[in-house]
Design goal:
The protein is mostly helical. It is built from 13 helices and no strands.
Length: about 260
Amino acid sequence: GVDYEPMILVFRSRALWLMGQPDEAERASRLALESAAVTNHPSSNASTLENHGLLELMRRDDRAAASYVRQCLALSREYGFLHFRLSGEAILVSAESRYAALAAGDHDVVERISAAKHAIDCLQEHGILFFCLPCWATLAEACIAFGRFRDAEEMIDKALAISGPDGVRYWEAELYRLTGALAWARDDSEGARTGYHQALAMAREQGALSLELRAATSLFELEGDADSHALLAEVFGRFTEGFDTPDLKHAAELLA
């Protein structure tokens, strides 16, 4: 059977994070974990662990994401949950790849990226598209940081193909932002500017304040002028919580 209470809380947590309420999102996701633990239904436990891992990945806390999906994977292997195993593996290797790419002195990035590509391809082949988007985006971010620009372009293209007009669009703004980040890494400032403005427009259209903040942050890092500073300050000023989360802390440092 289906345990509806934790599933409703899971969906709520994703929406809250996108709308710019990271603390409420975290609270809803933890309530989902607690609700699943009460009934102790294995599939509910695996699902809430998987989804909390995804939330941490979206928040850019890769170490926390890895911790939760490892628990999900243990349950999935014990009970034979293919869906949760595939999504858990994709989240895990994506998080590990980004963390490794951003950590100085890690020599296993290439192997991690290769494993992550395989895991996300498997996830996509099974039609679990919702989880593919942040995983492809996370892996693209790792590739940009590590200088593997062609790989990053391939991953962004795969994710945008899933999004499309009739696809899963909730992560589209972040994909446009990464298109801009890739252009900037290639010394194409005009391409970066275009990508960031596309990301801003899409985030505003969808009411995704958290992704609007990321786009405004990237635009200010590119331009560094009064207009982009004012834009970042305006977007940042709409937040009422989550000031200890990575994106808001970074924005605050830039505005200081």
